[in-house]
Design a protein that fits this description.
The complex is a heterodimer of chains A (about 300) and B (about 375). With about 300 residues, chain A is mostly helical. Chain A has one domain: ABC transporter involved in vitamin B12 uptake, BtuC. Chain A contains 14 helices and two strands. In chain A, strands 1-2 form a two-stranded antiparallel sheet. In chain A, a hairpin with a 2-residue loop joins strand 1 and strand 2. In chain A, helix 2 packs antiparallel against helix 10, helix 2 packs across helix 11 and helix 11 runs parallel beside helix 14. The termini of chain A are far apart. Chain B is mostly helical. Chain B has a domain of about 240 residues. Helices cover about 70% and strands about 5% of the residues of chain B. Chain B has a two-stranded antiparallel sheet with strand order 1-4. In chain B, strands 2-3 form a two-stranded antiparallel sheet. In chain B, strand 2 and strand 3 form a beta hairpin. In chain B, helix 5 runs antiparallel to helix 6, helix 8 crosses helix 9 and helix 12 packs across helix 13. The longest helix of chain B is centred in the first third of the chain and has 28 residues. The interface between A and B is large, with 47 and 51 residues.
């Protein structure tokens, strides 16, 4: 199917791939924010995961270990944020910014000597004849396992937050840490675990950029994906399925933008490449104004540190 | 068991001691990092922190200090005003770029006219460019309650794209044989940001930075607007009762920080950088965030912090050329500094106590 010189089938298939990094990072950040912590260091965690995963994958020649490595390095660097905000009670906004700057530096330092290397390829899951179904086969059955894993993770997070005791505790801590503390929950410990989880998914998202999307290592490879992930959490009003929709929307915009560049449309390349950022701003504006105020559904204790005095 | 207990009042001692402790810790851990990379940590630390001021080439490098510190101080003072009021403008990098583009465009538009009014008009245009770019998140914040952190940051990427367009398109040097980049201001005396004291590296940007520090100090300590900024940051509810309009405060703080970042960009493009090029921005807008915190959000502290951060830039370049230290190591070093600062800052508001009962006895929340 062709519309305006763009193959819709391939467009949908590739937007699913393009949105995986921001989807993974945004899902993790969603859990972190639902527990009442605003971690602005998503970009730093992603890029650390990108280089961590890349190094492991190149050294072991195993893409699976690469993703594990990405998750571990993302979690490791988020541990610094967790330590600072949960133990030393540092300002979350400032610490998040520090985490991003530190992550960018660390990744560029660690990535020296890894430029121009090709990582081991992550193959698509063999679905056999299913992949040959016209139109749907290309869209649904032609991806690598991370694409499916990211969708499964969306479902899992939705289920955990909505139907399990763990989810209830996380939400309680995020809505009212005083009350959760009074009930005997270790607020800072729960938040610490959530931060580590967010770091792991962001790191995995970063690894997807360097192992599948690009796939090679260049400095600053995530180019703002972490910030877009943060915006998507607001866009999704802190709900997992809406994060998926948001991520696919933004993935779609960036793929469409690249397709338009390739198709040689009349729009200058510069304007196309700033489109994802501009559209993020426009969507944020629409969501934060009007009746469906996005800020209304934000966790009540978001961004506030908790210090148990009793 | 070691536990934290909130102080009734922030400790004045730790308020000022924190940056020193953080710098010491960063040097120590940074030294370990350099040792891990196979460098002699003492040599590296000396190259970064000692040689630029007292070493063999200090006569040249001392000048470089102020060149780097100027934009950092200018931007950081603006950011600090906002941070104090709880307004997070983290897109100073974009405002810096837009200030440079606007200012340079005005100058280049009248090339090669020689008139002493050109440079002052460029300064106004530079400040306007940064101000206008900062007004986007400010207006969206006040009109639509949009998160200013995300919008100002997204606009950095947009500004970078505009910069690329400027360098390869609308501001490209027509006599540049097709190479990207604008005309160089070094061959355009009326629009050049020239050195006032060459040996100190003092150009108009440095003068503006120091003047801004003094003005901002007066604003914060003597003027009602400064009081309102501090009040809004520490007790937003009290500020509303006092009649502080949050919207006006956002527009004011974002406007000031944007204009200052734009000024920094203009002084840079007309002075040390010399031209609009694709890689014109070097991250001053982000490093200034560290400077603002390191200076304790205090204008005079920021001047010192800016000079210290400039030292890591200048010394870092020295270490890169002489000792082969990767420039990314300096970035890590700067990030680490902010981490340690934030961690040590716990001592300003809390104290460590042994035993579990102490906090209850004190009865503070």
């Amino acid at each position: 199917m062709l519309i305006g010189g763009i193959n819709v089938e391939i467009l949908i298939a590739s937007l699913m791939v393009a949105s995986v990094p921001i989807l993974l990072a945004a899902l993790g950040e969603l859990v972190v924010e639902r527990s009442g912590v605003l971690n602005l260091g998503v970009e730093g965690m992603m890029i650390t995961g990108a280089i961590g995963g890349f190094i492991i994958a190149v050294q072991t020649q195993s893409p699976v270990l690469g993703f594990v490595g990405g998750a571990v390095s993302g979690a490791a660097i988020s541990a610094v944020f967790a330590l600072l905000t949960q133990v030393f009670l540092a300002n979350q906004v400032a610490t998040g910014l520090a985490l991003t700057m530190f992550g960018l530096g660390v990744s560029s330092l660690a990535g020296q000597g890894y430029n121009g290397i090709k990582p081991p390829a992550t193959g698509s899951v063999p679905f056999g004849p299913l992949a040959d179904i016209p139109f749907l086969g290309r869209i649904l059955f032609s991806h690598d396992w991370i694409v499916y894993a990211s969708i499964a993770l969306t479902a899992a997070i939705w289920w955990v937050l909505k139907y399990t005791r763990t989810g209830l505790i996380i939400r309680a801590v995020g809505e009212s840490h005083e009350a959760a503390h009074a009930l005997g929950y270790k607020v800072n410990r729960i938040r610490l675990l959530c931060i580590l989880f967010g770091g792991a998914t962001a790191g995995m998202g970063g690894a997807y950029v360097s192992l599948v999307r690009v796939p090679q290592w260049v400095d600053g490879i995530t180019s703002g994906a972490g910030w877009i992930a943060l915006a998507i959490v607001v866009f999704a009003s802190w709900r997992p399925w809406r994060v998926l929709i948001g991520a696919y929307l933004f993935g779609g915009i960036s793929v469409l933008q690249l397709n338009l560049q390739a198709a040689g449309s009349g729009i200058p390349v510069e304007y196309l490449s700033m489109a994802p950022y501009l559209i993020t701003i426009i969507v944020l504006v629409i969501l934060s104004s009007g009746r469906g105020k996005a800020s209304m559904s934000a966790p009540a204790a978001l961004g506030q540190n908790f210090h148990a005095s009793r | 068991m070691l536990r934290l207990e909130k102080r009734p009042n922030p400790s004045r001692f730790w308020l000022y001691a924190t940056p020193a402790v953080a710098v010491a810790l960063t040097m120590f851990v940074g030294g370990l990092l350099f040792a891990l990379m196979g460098k002699n940590p003492f040599e590296v630390i000396r190259t970064i922190f000692w040689d630029p001021v007292f070493g063999e080439f200090a006569f040249y490098l001392r000048g470089q200090l102020l060149v780097k510190a100027g934009p950092l101080i200018l931007i950081a003072i603006g950011l600090a005003l906002g941070f104090r009021a709880g307004i997070w403008n983290i897109g100073a990098e974009g405002q810096y770029i837009m200030g440079a583009i606007c200012g340079a465009a005005v100058g280049l538009a009248v090339f090669p006219t020689e008139n002493r009014l050109i440079f002052p008009v460029m300064i106004v245009a530079g400040a306007f460019g940064g101000w206008a770019w900062a007004m986007i998140p400010a207006i969206l914040k006040t009109r639509f309650n949009t998160n200013e952190i995300l919008v100002s940051l997204m606009l950095v990427y947009v500004a970078e794209t505009i910069l690329a367009k400027a360098a390869t398109g609308f501001l490209k040097n027509p006599e540049g044989m097709g190479f990207p980049g604008s005309r160089n201001f070094s061959s355009f005396p009326a629009a050049r940001n020239s050195y006032i004291v060459e040996s100190l590296g003092l150009h108009w940007g440095g003068v503006a930075a120091l003047a801004t520090a003094v003005l901002a100090y007066i604003l914060l300590t003597r003027h009602i607007a400064g009081f309102q900024i501090k009040l809004a940051g520490q007790a937003p509810r009290a500020a509303r009762f006092h009649g502080v309009s949050p919207a006006r405060l956002v527009v004011m703080c974002m406007g000031i920080s944007g204009a200052l970042a734009g000024l920094a960009g203009l002084f840079e493009v007309a002075g040390p950088a010399g031209q609009i090029s694709i890689d014109f921005n070097t991250g001053y807008g982000f490093t200034a965030i560290i400077v603002a915190f390191l200076g304790r959000l205090n204008p005079l502290g920021i001047v010192l912090a800016g000079i210290l951060m400039a030292l890591t830039y200048v010394g870092g370049e020295m270490a890169a050329t002489n000792l082969g230290l990767p420039s990314a190591a300096i970035q890590v070093f700067q990030g680490m500094l902010l981490f340690f600062l934030l961690a040590v800052d716990v001592l300003t508001n809390y104290r460590f106590r042994l035993g579990a009962g102490a906090a209850r006895a004190a009865g503070v929340k």
